[in-house]
Amino acid sequence: MKIHKFDAHGHEGETVGDVAHRRIRSDIVHGRLKPLQKLKLDALKEKYGVSVSTLREILNRLTVEHLVTAEGQRGFEVAPVSQDGLRDIAELRILLETHAIRRSLAEGDLDWQGNVVSEHYKLSQVEKTLIGGNDGMVEQWVRQDWGFHHAVISACESPALMELHSSVFDRFQRYHMLVLDFRGKPAADEHQQLRDLVLERDADGAVALLERHVRSGVEHILGTGRVP
């Protein structure tokens, strides 16, 4: 079973291994398992309730996604983060997301437009709270940020593109979760502008704004001094 943040709640039909994979993946993306942390199989076995053989399979899958690194005979550890790594994954996100935006704007229907408006509304309410001084909602903002950007490209009619974008977005989002710092009104204004450009079907404008938006986010994350 493919695990994405946009899967329906409930995860019917999951095996114990599927559940463990989702939990470990989420713990890495959300910073509960820290960069370079050793992933000791005995401890993971107790925490996630699966066998060592299942854990090895899960960690090998996460290695393919660049969320875990294998150390040969020494085992596994959470993948590192770096400034170059953030810039690299940001450029890949831009490449995928701008292509998906163009396709989505060409194919999207009225229901898609409504979903874009709905997801932006939810994101904007969290952003208003953050701008008002409630810093405790940054983690929720990261989730709503995903929801809005996913909604924008959801009409691209390419499951393979959506799956790859989801994986790349997770790796980008991981940096946000490690610094937990909101860029403020500029980010909120860009989201509103992106919503408007999308509804106007202005593909060139939306793509140009998205590129600036992601790169500004990168500079903000690096400006916190929390990425080695």
Automatic annotation (TrEMBL):
Pfam families: FCD, GntR. It comes from the Bacteria. Keywords: DNA-binding, Transcription, Transcription regulation. One of its GO terms (molecular function) is DNA binding. InterPro entries: GntR_C (IPR011711), TF_FadR/GntR_C (IPR008920), Tscrpt_reg_HTH_GntR (IPR000524), WH-like_DNA-bd_sf (IPR036388), WH_DNA-bd_sf (IPR036390). Residues 14-81 form the HTH gntR-type domain. Gene3D superfamilies: GntR ligand-binding domain-like, Winged helix-like DNA-binding domain superfamily/Winged helix DNA-binding domain. This is Transcriptional regulator, GntR family. The lineage of its organism: Bacteria, Pseudomonadati, Pseudomonadota, Alphaproteobacteria, Rhodobacterales.
